[in-house]
Amino acid sequence: MIDSQVLAAQARQHLQNRSVQPAQLHVLAGFDGFVDEICDVVDKRLDVDHYVRFETIAAYAERVAQAAGLSANIELVPRTIKLGGNGPIMANSLVSYGFSLTYIGSVGVPSPHPVFQELAQRAKVIGIADPGHTDALEFSDGKLMMGKLEPIKHVSWDNLMQHVPREELSRLFQQSALVALVDWSILPRMTEIWQHLTQEFLPTLSLPRDLFFFIDLADPRKRTVEELQEALHLIQAFRPFGRVIAGFNRNEADQVAAALGVTPHSGVRLPLDELTERIGRALDLWATVVHPTEEAAAYAQGKTVRISGPYTPNPKLTTGAGDNFNAGLCTGLLLGLPLAEALLVGTATSGFYVRFGHSPSLDQLIDFLGIWTQQGVEALDQVAAAARA
Q1: Rounded CA gap, 132 and 139, in Å?
Q2: What would the pLDDT profile of 31-48 be if each residue is shown by its tens digit?
Q3: Cα–Cα distances in angstroms (integers) from residue 156 to residues 60, 87, 174, 191, 329, in the given order
Q4: Is there a cis peptide before residue 338, judged by omega within 30 degrees of 0?
Q5: What are the sequence ranges of the domains in the chain?
Q6: Contact at 8 Å (CB) between 245 and 254?
Q7: Mean pLDDT of all residues in the chain?
Q8: Is 149 helix (H, G, I), strand (E, B) or coil?
Q9: 246: phi then psi, degrees, rounded to nearest 5
Q10: CATH level 3 topology of 4-38+82-388
Q11: What integer pLDDT is reported at residue 66 of this predicted model?
Q12: Which residues in the chain land under pLDDT 50?
């Protein structure tokens, strides 16, 4: 494993001496959109204003299991309401870094929902459906996303064509340095959209040779294995049109590996670098990335790299951490950093986000990398704690 502090110093220097500015590059992203309500789940109510939350998913699961055959009253305390969905959160992080961006998705029609107004002020936002709603139950060891998805069924190729003229969509693809297509698992018609893109739309365009496609499935557990296998085949269909990157968290990667038939047998959990390489070889994309909470790995051009990230056991916010990782990874690649350093920028972007509750600017990221390089991860937690006080 590469020494992350050394890598952080190299990435920081390359970002400071960058020859390309984010504002010079355009990003196109889509197609989901949610209103996220970030909630604590109450374990004990102390008085009108105070409570003790469930700290772990296991503790909450035990309470739910105890209600089997009986009943239970579960109290949720909303902490904040914010824009949600893999695409909008990733887009929000990318515009925080200064990229020119167009977002197309279920953000509200005929105008964006209020939670997307800030994004709409910094980027071009085009609604093709109303947003879904998510109760994001946060715990110290993870999160449970309780989604209300009825509006999302209207995210379709026909609806996309209705709200975005073909000529405009062509122009957006042709002027972009990155196209991010995310949240396949949640969008029931994303497979249809990918089919239209790869079979009918993209072959008619003159695209930049160095165009990046970033594709994120989101948790595919509720989709059938056959659907997942079809989606993985369609990801490969983007290869003639640019440099394709597939990104997975560890849970998603395990499911993808099983669908591809690259795990030894059921129940075996491969080491991160071996898992990433097996998936990468099977998909044969420009790069395959797997990012658990504490580290990240990538397979590209026959080589595997693995790094540790600035993990914190005391996050302020976890919903959106993976999307910020994806934005950081893509930022590093767009600004010309080597893959290992781009991975590092991904973990740093996520590490900043979970500590401070918002995406960093490029200057804030550079400062964050400087603290990590000079003082270590513990100093990052101390800075974050001081900011919260």
Answers
A1: 22
A2: 999 999 999 999 999 999
A3: 36, 16, 21, 9, 28
A4: no
A5: 4-38+82-388
A6: no
A7: 95
A8: coil
A9: -110, 130
A10: UDP-N-acetylmuramoyl-L-alanine:D-glutamate ligase (3.40.1190)
A11: 95
A12: none
